[in-house]
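Q: what sequence does this backbone want?
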């Protein structure tokens, strides 16, 4: 073949083309920045694509775990912050500190990350949007930041277009995306199967708004085929709407879906401001998800100078009689409707099914004092429960006036004489304006009678009508209640509120939330057997849950003759949940009579701590099993808990976390030989043995079962 000789002019032409191509590539190449985790295993690469759109990618140990994903904010006007950006400046930094939480799973937490900060401008309109990435050894956090600026003093977010592009059809543990409730059972499936399983995953709720047949909620736990665990959530949700995830099941790309307000907008912003952190945990060991403090670390330090009044709480309550036993929060059947300040309850005939009465509450106070519980929750103490639900009623409760059979002062005096406090209950019926109009007076009442904690609730559709439980306006309300409560030295446990995002670091009087399907559902249709093996990977990533465990009598017929089912848990697992479901707020949810019936098992609930110096995650696989060991605050005592899903599990439990050279007495509360959530639920065996740090315990947990161990220094 005859070779063609390239002329000088041809060479010059080719060189010009090459230089032009390089020049076209240069802006994107120059914009690419990579920041790695302190251990070098995890990295985030950021760049602008050829449209000037921000793009990030996440790699772990040389493998891409988040494919190139775009970022942007769509505004309710034409000049959206989506593309045509240029990078003005990038800076990197390293941060490393240790801090001590007021309460928690350990007494000290390390906050260690490398940061990339990107300052961007949209030259066409002189608007600025910055991005901040923090890369930890176990995950990534990033957020949008908006400096104060002339051409963007205020803006309305129409949509946030944050992508999370998956690298494969991962296994996921998910619940349906919903603007108003998280009270769903989890489904385990591939991402591609979400659409087909979605309809059956939705159950009815007092308030719910589904937005997509492939929408799911955070925290979303996933596992890749090669054994990488991914978890997507958010941190520090303040003055913004809650984020869900909407899946394009063809491309396997998740995109953020914010909760709209009554007008359909997602957030109203004033610069300077920023969004919450978007978080991605990436590890190759499931135990590291449970051990991660990424969410807490991305929140600001504690805002309070004095935290001495914030104390973990182990409590009982006048609750299961209503939830499980079918008794009433209301006082009378005489009133089809109630007008506060007008209705005269003294003229009404009590229906006789009101457990929040003076005599019954005294029984609970006596039981609490005898068994070392610090507080007693009483639900249904205040007037207004006759027509509280389903009427979109504005002026529904005043949170101050007791029913005629509830001696507010006398019961508090009686409790204090026994070394016990009552816990206030504020069900708002989702009437936000009404709660806020009464809030100061209600907190003053609590101060007057010595209450220091409140369980609030938001059942039903939100008033103002059209707002959602997880929108910006409601998120501001929840935080307002917490910060106002702090002025009164009151701790808050909010039910039906937005799922936590680590704000308990900043505001530690936010001592708990519900925000998921808890034990109360065992009295209805029951939770799936693997439910408590999933929650620590999902709901609990943002903060503790008031799960209300400890139901020792699982046959619902024995508390309510009209019910004919059994809770989906063994008795031993109910004990284990006090360890596996971390919370500084732990309820012994069963009635006193059942604790007296199973007094030997109840001993563990009495003994178990609620604040910890150290936590060890011994075994973990989402949906299958979790085994945790925790060292009680200020002591040498340890407690171990194991919860198991649909398949029985055998543990070879090494006690090498114990102090060498010391002997301990271990009391083991285990499933009986044939115990499972389907049969023999009340079968349990209690054994004692002397152990050391060299001991190995072989323990079997049945399906839907578990075991609990107290380990005391000898």
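A:
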């Amino acid at each position: 073949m005859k070779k063609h000789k390239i002329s000088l002019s041809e060479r010059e032409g080719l060189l010009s083309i090459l230089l032009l191509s390089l020049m076209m590539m240069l802006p994107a190449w120059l914009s690419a920045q990579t920041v790695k985790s302190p251990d070098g295993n995890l990295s985030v690469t950021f760049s602008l694509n050829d449209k000037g759109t921000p793009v990030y990618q996440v790699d772990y140990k040389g493998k891409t775990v988040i494919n190139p994903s775009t970022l942007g904010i769509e505004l309710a006007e034409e000049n959206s912050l989506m593309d045509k950006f240029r990078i003005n400046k990038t800076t990197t930094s390293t941060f490393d500190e240790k801090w001590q939480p007021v309460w928690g799973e350990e007494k000290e937490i390390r906050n260690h990350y490398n940061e990339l900060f990107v300052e961007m401008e949209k030259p066409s309109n002189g608007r600025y949007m910055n991005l901040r990435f923090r890369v930890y050894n176990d995950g990534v956090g990033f957020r949008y930041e908006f400096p104060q600026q002339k051409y963007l003093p205020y803006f309305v977010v129409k949509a946030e277009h944050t992508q999370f592009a998956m690298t494969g059809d991962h296994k996921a543990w998910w619940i349906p995306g919903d603007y108003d409730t998280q009270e769903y059972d989890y489904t385990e499936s591939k991402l591609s199967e979400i659409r087909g399983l979605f309809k059956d995953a939705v159950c009815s709720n007092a308030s719910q708004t589904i937005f997509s047949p492939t929408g799911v909620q955070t925290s979303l736990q996933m596992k890749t085929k090669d054994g990488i665990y991914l978890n997507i959530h958010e941190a520090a949700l303040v003055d913004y709407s809650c984020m869900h995830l909407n899946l394009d099941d063809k491309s396997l790309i998740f995109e953020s879906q914010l909760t709209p307000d009554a007008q359909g907008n997602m957030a109203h912003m004033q610069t300077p401001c920023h969004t919450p952190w978007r978080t991605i945990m990436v590890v190759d060991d499931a135990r590291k998800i449970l051990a991660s403090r990424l969410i807490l670390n991305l929140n600001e330090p504690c805002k309070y100078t004095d935290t001495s009044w914030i104390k973990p709480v182990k409590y009982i309550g006048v609750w299961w009689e209503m939830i499980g036993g079918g008794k009433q929060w209301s006082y009378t059947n005489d009133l089809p409707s109630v007008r506060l300040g007008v209705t005269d309850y003294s003229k009404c005939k009590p229906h006789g099914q009101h457990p929040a009465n003076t005599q019954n509450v005294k029984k609970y106070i006596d039981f609490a004092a005898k068994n070392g519980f610090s507080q007693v929750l009483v639900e249904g103490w205040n007037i207004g429960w006759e027509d509280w639900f389903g009427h979109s009623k504005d002026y529904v409760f005043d949170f101050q006036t007791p029913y005629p059979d509830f001696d507010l002062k006398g019961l508090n005096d009686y409790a204090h004489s026994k070394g016990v406090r009552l816990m206030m209950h504020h069900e708002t019926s989702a009437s936000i304006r009404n709660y806020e109009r009464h809030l100061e007076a209600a907190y003053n009442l609590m101060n007057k009678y010595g209450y220091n904690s409140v369980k609030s609730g938001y059942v039903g559709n939100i008033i103002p009508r059209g707002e959602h439980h997880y929108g910006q306006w409601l998120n501001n309300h929840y935080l307002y209640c917490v910060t106002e409560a702090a002025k009164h030295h009151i701790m808050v446990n909010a039910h039906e509120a937005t799922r936590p995002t680590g704000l308990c670091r900043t505001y530690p009087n936010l001592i708990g939330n519900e925000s998921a399907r808890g034990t109360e559902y065992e009295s209805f249709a029951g939770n799936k057997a693997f439910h408590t093996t999933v929650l620590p990977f999902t709901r609990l990533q943002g903060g503790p849950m008031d799960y209300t465990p400890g139901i020792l009598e699982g046959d619902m017929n024995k508390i309510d003759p009209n019910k004919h089912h059994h809770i989906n848990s063994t008795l031993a697992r109910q004990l284990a949940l006090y360890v596996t479901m971390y919370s500084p707020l732990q309820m012994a949810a069963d009635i006193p009579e059942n604790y007296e019936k199973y007094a030997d098992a109840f001993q563990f609930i009495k003994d178990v701590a609620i604040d910890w110096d150290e936590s060890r995650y011994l075994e973990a696989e989402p949906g299958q099993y979790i085994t945790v060991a925790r060292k009680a605050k200020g002591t040498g005592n340890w407690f171990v808990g194991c919860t198991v899903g649909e398949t029985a599990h055998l543990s070879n439990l090494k006690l090498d976390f114990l102090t060498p050279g010391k002997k301990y007495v271990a009391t083991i509360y285990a499933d009986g030989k044939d115990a499972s959530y389907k049969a023999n639920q009340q079968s349990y065996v209690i054994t004692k043995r002397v152990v050391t740090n060299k001991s190995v315990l072989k323990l079997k947990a049945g399906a839907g079962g578990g075991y609990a161990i107290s380990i005391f220094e000898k």
